[in-house]
Predict the 3D structure of the following.
Amino acid sequence: MTATRPCESKDERGPLRAVLFKSRDRMSRFAEKLKAAGVSCTVLDFEGSDWLSFDYRGVDLVIFYPSFVYTSNHPHALLDVRDNLSFITEQHPHLICYPDPALIPYYNDKYRQFLFLSARRHPCPRTIPLLSLEAVEAAHLQLGYPMVLKNRYGAGGASVFRVTNKRQLLHYYRLSTLDLFNVRAALHFTRICFNRLFLYNLIKARRAQYPFLSPPLLAQEFLPIDRDLKTVVRNGEVVEAHWRIQATANMWKMNIDAGGIGEWSHVPPEALAVSRTLAQDLKARWLNIDLMESNGRFLISEFSPVWHHYAYKEKPSFVYKDDYNIKVPLKVSLDLEPVSYTHLRAHETVLDLVCRLLLEKKKILQNKSPSTTVQTNTIIK
């Protein structure tokens, strides 16, 4: 992804204006990129109160690279996105915003994703939300064991369990409903308190990991796979995809940070079609999708409006094969400025993001007023 010159875009009101919200990392680089792109930029902070009284009427773009305020399984881990950013875009619908406001309700919420996938009949593993004891019994009878049990919130494989019997299933359900007056609940929290990571965060970071589960849990059929697939869709086309392959036979969560192997190789047309269809149905500009192959079908596990990614050759274990069949070259789609957060990794150059938004703004202005001219001197290849 290259640009010949910085973006410069003007309409009848003057230069485009952006609001860039502070996040944990690389904010100075973000501001520098916006400045180089010729965009008048105001930096605001959700931890302060200035954003509440700020006048957004003259702003064109709002950009916020989210990070989890608490651990990703916390119900309010994305409060800056879900509450604050959503409020701004509701009050000022003219704004072009990243992440896409239409997708924010689904961000890191597996239950809402399940509702959408089910209602729109997208292919996904058999799933039963544990809304009651009757649902627990249905999962026990219909899904069998082993069974995958997912907390409503969580990223990177956090709060995802493999249960092997009804007693375990009922135990996690009771935890999610705060039925804690029992021996198994006491043992559960005792184990948490003596977990090394929990103690480190509690003592060193001064921020404990969230120890509870959030209803409804999602009971899902266990699929015996040795890999899954991540795709990234931009404006209706898959621009990047890679397989996450288990490193050992005992690995059942295909997570690269947990030791899984990343492989960029041939992606079947069926997987590309499923990815495009979901993105179109969501009307998503950017969409990251997790897929699993079972019995010749690709099933959607979950999706996200934010592009979580690794840089090209970031890890020595990564494998790049000649039969990789995505049109965008890997050295383009993966050679991006990295931005790291706790529990997640998101990569996209701000320059690319700004130029993309400017081009979208240009189309909007041209549709509203044929006489409006917008000069864009950047070529994105």
Observations:
- The first helix runs from residue 27 to 36.
